[in-house]
């Protein structure tokens, strides 16, 4: 499936994530590593250009149905990654995932993206709900899920250990 640009609004655009983005994505990860390592398992293993290339390839060549990955552009600058991780046509839902650099937090960027992508998925794929998975301490992602109307629908206990402390995985369902 060809991945196309998605214009969110006058400031935000989702451009397809490409192998050639490895350097800029690595720099974002490196500059935001303490934040990302708190909540995202892959941040500890993406440590150089080669592992960043693998991180990108694992996403853009995913075998999951409907998967599409984007770099988040805010006023022309790459500030994170957004993914439609999978579309489940039978259940009419899609799982999404995302991260932003710290300097882009608190500006409503991800809330606007999730709201617009919800409409895009409803129009294009007849999706009726989004799934957002967040570690229990990831208050920023939980706040995004709640702002777009997400309801806490499930918890997987002791899902991931960070610095020896287990966190639950909270699953939010966002009706569209």
Verbal overview:
Helix 1 (22-31) packs across helix 3 (49-60). The chain has 176 residues and is of the alpha+beta class. It has an 8-stranded mixed beta sheet with strand order 1-2-3-4-5-6-8-7, with helices on both faces. Strand 5 (93-100), helix 4 and strand 6 (129-135) form a beta-alpha-beta unit. It has a domain at 6-127: Gcn5-related N-acetyltransferase (GNAT) (Aminopeptidase), CATH 3.40.630. The protein contains 5 helices and 8 strands, in the order E-E-H-H-H-E-E-E-H-E-H-E-E.
What's the CATH architecture of the domain at 6-127? Answer: 3-Layer(aba) Sandwich
Q: Write down the Rg.
A: 15 Å
> Can you summarize the main beta sheet?
8 strands, mixed
User: Based on DSSP secondary structure assignment, what is the total number of beta strands?
Assistant: 8
Average pLDDT over all residues = 96
- According to CATH, the homologous superfamily of the domain at 6-127 is Gcn5-related N-acetyltransferase (GNAT)
- Stretches where pLDDT is under 50 for at least 5 consecutive residues are none
H/E topology pattern: EEHHHEEEHEHEE
Task: Describe the strand arrangement of the main beta sheet, using strand numbers.
Answer: 1-2-3-4-5-6-8-7
Percent of sequence in beta strands: 35-45%
Q: Could you outline the blueprint of secondary structure elements for this entry?
A:
Layout: E1 6-7, E2 12-16, H1 22-31, H2 33-39, H3 49-60, E3 68-74, E4 77-88, E5 93-100, H4 109-125, E6 129-135, H5 139-147, E7 151-162, E8 165-175
Parallel strand pairs: 5-6
Antiparallel strand pairs: 1-2, 2-3, 3-4, 4-5, 6-8, 7-8
Helix pairs in contact: 1-3
């Amino acid at each position: 499936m060809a991945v196309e640009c998605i214009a969110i609004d006058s400031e935000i655009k989702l451009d397809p994530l490409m192998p050639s983005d490895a350097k800029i994505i690595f720099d974002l990860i490196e500059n935001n590593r303490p934040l990302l390592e708190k909540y995202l398992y892959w941040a500890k293993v993406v440590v150089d250009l080669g592992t960043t290339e693998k991180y990108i390839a694992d996403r853009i060549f995913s075998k999951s149905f409907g998967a599409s990955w984007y770099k988040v552009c805010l006023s022309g600058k790459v500030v994170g990654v957004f993914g439609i991780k999978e579309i489940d046509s039978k259940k009419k839902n899609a799982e999404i995932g995302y991260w932003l650099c710290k300097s882009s937090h608190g500006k409503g960027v991800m809330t606007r993206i999730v709201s617009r992508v919800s409409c895009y998925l409803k129009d294009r794929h007849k999706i009726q709900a989004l799934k957002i998975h967040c570690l229990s301490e990831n208050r920023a992602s939980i706040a995004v899920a709640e702002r777009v109307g997400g309801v806490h629908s499930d918890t997987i206990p002791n899902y991931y250990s960070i610095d020896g402390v287990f966190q639950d995985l909270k699953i939010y369902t966002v009706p569209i």
